[in-house]
Design a protein that fits this description.
Helix content of chain B: over 70%
Low-confidence stretches of chain B: none
Distance between the termini of chain B: 21 Å
Radius of gyration of chain A: 22 Å
Shape of chain A: globular
Low-confidence stretches of chain A: none
Largest sheet of chain B: none
Oligomer: heterodimer
Strand content of chain B: under 5%
Largest interface: A-B, 56 and 58 residues
Distance between the termini of chain A: 48 Å
Strand content of chain A: under 5%
Order of helices and strands of chain B: HHHHH
Order of helices and strands of chain A: HHHHHHHHHHHHHHHHHHHHH
Chain lengths: 433, 162
Amino acid sequence: MSVATISILVILLLFVFFLMGLEIGFSMALAGFIGFAAIVNVNAALNLVAKDVYAVLSSYGFTVIPMFVLMGQLGASGGVARNLYDSAYKFIGHIPGGLAIGTVAAATAFKAICGSSPATAATFATIAVPEMDRYGYDRRLSCGTVTTVGTLGILIPPSVVLIIYGVLTETSIGRLFLAGIIPGLLVAFSFAATLLGWSILNPKLGPKGEKSTWKERFASLPPVIWVLVIFFLVVGGLMQGFFTPTEAGSVGTFAVLLLTLAKKDMDLKRFVKAVSDTLRIGCMVLMLLAGATILGHFFAVTRTPFLVASWLESLHVDRNIIIFIIIGVYLVGGSFIEDLAFLILATPIFLPVVLKLGYDPVWFGIIISVVTMIGVILPPMAINAFVVSGVTKEPISTVYKGIYPFIVGMSICLLILVFFPQISLWLPNLFMK
Amino acid sequence: MVKTLSSIVRVLSRVMYSIAGLALTAMMLLTVADVILRTFKRPIVGTYEIVGLLGAVAMGFAIPQTSRVHGHVLMDFLTTKLPIALQKVFLVLTRLLGIAIFFIIAWNLWVLGSDYVRTGETTLTLEFPLYPAAYGIAICCFIECVVLFIELLEVGKQETET
């Protein structure tokens, strides 16, 4: 059997495993093992599996993942999100759709310390939806908002998706973090604009809330300031090269722990829960990465990424079209498999193509993150929507109806970011030459 | 018999998970301490190596419990639409495949651990031996096999009940 035939068979086998319902990380490990055994030999494959699993688990570079997940889980279990929401609400609650726009603002700030998307969706579903109910907001709008704002953390540092992209492609996590800031704010702005437009067109959906005095507004600011301090400590320290990514995550986690302790929002029970959730999420991600590493070694001996790159190059089409094809593959693949798992699976294959086309890997990381943001809320496989539906007891179809308007805005942002790479690359080029 | 096995595995998975949690907390505290002491020109020597090993313990030891709470992502949009009988067939097959890959991983990690014992391989600065982490993760992968085996037995149990 030729190498190409084996490659195709292994990819088919991988999808058979996926479809049968074998865990995605396990599927990649098993398919990679079988392929490697077929091309090289069984002993080498046995050796490879153990070495790869051990290397992924014990690598210092990968410890950054559980650290930033822990930072987010601590932030989510403490009352930080509620404080931020209270503050945003006091500033903009009185405009049309103001409580929903306040949710966007609070979530944008909250994302500066919490990278987890479903955790944010769940947190804000608990805090903001009851508040919007009180003012008679339409459930489509309120549920759609909390589902969508969770995705901001995929782009706004310290994003776990950007970290995973960074370790996967050996791209500087500091540069990726800086690159995510402006696009993240751009997408947040598109959410606010969508909500404002939607509420002005149909005022019944998002009635105005109470107007607060300036005194109340300023009194609500200290938690916002603390969050910004932690954010600048983490991103600034990383940017200046003072911290490794793991150190930045540890320091940020410790700072969030101190903040929640000082606000009496943290106790041993909550801390244990945050650690336990972190282990589960981190272990899931690491298993995906271990599986992808084994599969990646198989692809490396078959030179599959190289073949994909030269095939796409031989098409002689505009490089933007190739980028859109890749984006399409991520959206379709992500909606069938699982967005993060697909990112881990596909990025090592597509990155050589992107580099060969002359694009910046940092820029590609941002594009893939925006695609992932759309992916995690795009029906029919929208994890965030399931979480919000679970918390609010609202049927999933209602949540979906509230998501569509945001997807339009996000798609426009995606186009802008594809055609104007400088929006993403300006900050990293300015601060990290 | 199945009950005893499943309660043994439950306890073992939780013990491993607790060790993992302690390792994660230690990773954070050690790193923070190192960063603080470093500003006073007193860095903790070998932090880098220890954090890597603690990371291996934190993530590796969490494998069985993560599996028990169905924390590993999988694709279920197809299987959930199938008739129950076929779902069970797939569940049996995927559990067997899972056992196979984890058995391979566990066995070869054990071999790797034994290699580390024989060659006396250690971390660079602290010369901390590498084999305990390799053995530990190997044991957790064996436990994972049993976790999946119990899921397999539970499929059979459901069948006899219906």
